[in-house]
Amino acid sequence: MTQTSSESITEAPSHASAQGQKRHIIRNRVSFLEQKVPGYASVLGIFSLLLLWELICRLGLVPPLFLPAPSLILLAGWDMLSSGELHQNILASMSRIVIGYGIGAVCGIVIGLILGFSRWVDAVLSPIVYSIYPIPKIALLPLIILWLGIGEAPKFTMIALGVFFPVVINTFSGVKNVDPIWIKAAVTFGASHLSVIRKVILPGALPMIFAGLKLAAGTSLLLLVSAEMIAAQQGIGSMILHYGNLMITTKLMVGVLILSLLGLFFNRGLQWLEGKLLPWK
């Protein structure tokens, strides 16, 4: 064996080792993308915030009238729960938000899909959708009450309007962003138009549809409270306004915390549904 060949043999493992180190460095640089977070992390954040809040109130840094301690809010909430007051308000608000959100989400998804599939409908309706979308929906409440009267219908309509526009725009964008190569491949393999829509376009648009549904969840809570503050005898918004006028801030904060929990419930529920419908994500 010559000297040159022996050097090449000794260099080969070192070269392979250097490549291995380089691959190791690359793997470490992107490892944060696949890092698993324990389930208690989100609970830890909320618990830390409540602990800090309680500490600030216990030290007397903020008067209880302006910011009651979480422990006082829990006691007030328990009293309201025992008296049955909380049940009535939560049920009234939940029925309004479920109906309004459902109407707005279904209409938004259907209209968004039609806009995405048909160029004619897109050309006719898109300018209307984008011209109405920026209008604050709460500004339409007096007009909607004038049209529909003081009852449940204007509240459902307000929530449905607030949900409809984010969902329709995200659904439309989701359909438009489906890779044309997927559609061409499906057509090439003999798929019918209905199969292309059901098996290619809809699954491709679902991530954007769920993004719109999550965005609309926060908007629906905002509009629910606004509508209930203006024209309702029961509901979380009406309860917050009532205790705000009486300056009973502990019971007012009970309503605020319930809204926060509803928002969290909505978000987790949609994430669970998204995980079931999009297992590959």
Structural notes for this entry:
This protein has 281 residues and is mainly α. Helix content is 80%, strand content 0%. It has eleven helices and no strands. It has helices at 3-29, 40-58, 70-83, 85-117, 119-132, 141-148, 152-176, 180-188, 193-230, 236-245, 249-277. α8 runs antiparallel to α9 (193-230). The longest helix is centred in the C-terminal third of the chain and has 38 residues, at 193-230. Mean pLDDT is 84; it is low at 6-10.
| Rg result | 27 Å
Secondary structural class: mainly alpha
Mean pLDDT over all positions: 84
Q: What is the approximate shape?
A: globular
Assess the beta-strand content as a share of residues.
under 5%
- Multimeric state of these chains? single chain
Q: What about the largest sheet?
A: none
Cα distance, first to last residue? 55 Å
Specify the helix fraction band.
over 70%
Number of strands: 0
Number of helical runs? 11
User: Order of helices and strands, N to C?
Assistant: HHHHHHHHHHH
Instruction: Indicate the low-confidence ranges by residue numbers.
Output: 6-10
Could you list some keywords that capture this structure?
0% strand; 11 helices
Write the layout of secondary structure elements.
Elements: H1 3-29, H2 40-58, H3 70-83, H4 85-117, H5 119-132, H6 141-148, H7 152-176, H8 180-188, H9 193-230, H10 236-245, H11 249-277
